[in-house]
Amino acid sequence: MSIPEIKRKNDAEVSQSGYFVRQTNQFIQTFGDGPDQLPIEANKYRLLWAPVCPWAHRSVIVRSLLGLEEVISLGTADPIRPKLDHIDWAFTLDKDDIDPVLGIHYIGEAYLNADPTYDRRPTVPALVDIATKKVVENDYHNLTYYLERDWKKFHKAGAPDLFPPALEQEIRDLNDIIFHDVNNGVYKAGFAKSQAAYEAAYDKVFARFDWLEERLAHQRYLHGNQMTDSDIRLYTTLARFDVAYYGAFHVNKKRLIDYPNLWAYARDLYQTPGFGDTTDFTAIKKHYFQSSHIDTADEVTKILPKGPDTSGWLEPHGRAEKFS
After folding, report:
1. Contact predicate 90/97, CB 8 Å
2. Fewer beta carbons below 10 Å: N end or C end of the chain?
3. Distance between CA atoms of 157 and 292, rounded to whole angstroms?
4. Can 53 be counted among the known catalytic residues?
5. pLDDT tens digit at each of 324 positions of the chain
6. Helix, strand, or coil here: 46?
7. What is the rounded end-to-end Cα distance, in angstroms, of the chain?
8. CB atoms near residue 269 (< 10 Å)
9. Residues 223, 200: Cα–Cα separation, whole Å
10. CA–CA separation, 117 vs 108, rounded Å?
């Protein structure tokens, strides 16, 4: 069987001055009944993810919290990149190395089905139309908003309102800060190709951690005592910080466990169904220490760190009682 390959531009997502510049998303659609919108239908789409990826993880957390598992299926890629001449994600966790619903070996195939000239990294999350096997949405910036708002008719009874209209602007504003300084901030440090670029990103990450530590001293969640989309976005970076980013990306001023409020807050979320049960620390470490990244698809042979001890994530956090 001949599998099409992505002929990717050799841009490496790094500026001339050594700053990491993340690629933009190509498949950006909204949901609804309009002629140019994606229909909201049960069992029409398959959400492709890799448990290592924070952008994909947040959509999976939202899917779980809202009870959308019955209407949007999930395809899981291997944390280790496949040995190809381009960067991709592989379904080597499945029988015969093929996604059982879409019948593809690599996520990149769904991108090429949608656009045969696609030349960027195939990214997750990727929402794929099952009938056509084409990616129809990969806009991780907005996907959780759509699941929280547009898919309400499929939410389970008692599902949390993660994107309440009264807090919409505050959520969007804070999410923008979290993205630039924290979510993408650790990557800007880890993938920097100059000392200046690395130190600028490093300083922003820890300045924002200090700011968040103070904010969470006074309230259980980022927007008070109500969990929102912002908490999910911050959590996915916090969950990866000590086990991966601290060492692999050299953001090593402090660990998450050195911030009393942030650490307790992270444990609070981890112990909430939908968070911890979708967090795979082993897969995360395998990817960040043993797999390839932005500028190479070559085999990487590196030691898998034995630590840190992740049992502390189950220790009591006390935040429910503190802010009751």
Report:
1. yes
2. N
3. 42
4. yes
5. 456 665 554 455 666 666 666 677 677 788 998 888 999 999 999 999 999 999 999 999 999 999 999 999 999 999 999 988 888 999 999 999 999 999 999 999 999 999 999 988 899 999 999 999 999 999 989 999 999 999 999 999 999 999 999 999 999 999 999 999 999 999 999 999 899 999 999 999 999 999 999 999 999 999 999 999 999 999 999 999 999 999 999 999 999 999 999 999 999 999 999 999 999 999 999 999 988 654 443 444 578 999 999 999 999 999 999 998
6. strand
7. 59
8. 24
9. 28
10. 12
Cβ distance 138 to 125 under 8 Å?
yes
| Among candidate residues 29, 229, 22, 9, the one with its CA nearest the CA of residue 138 | 29
Residue from 53, 221, 259, 270 carrying the catalytic annotation: 53
Listed in sequence order, the DSSP H helices in the chain are: 54-65, 107-114, 143-149, 168-178, 185-190, 195-215, 229-240, 246-248, 260-270, 281-290, 319-322
For residue 146, indicate whether it is catalytic.
no
Which residue out of 19, 145, 146, 187 is catalytically annotated?
187
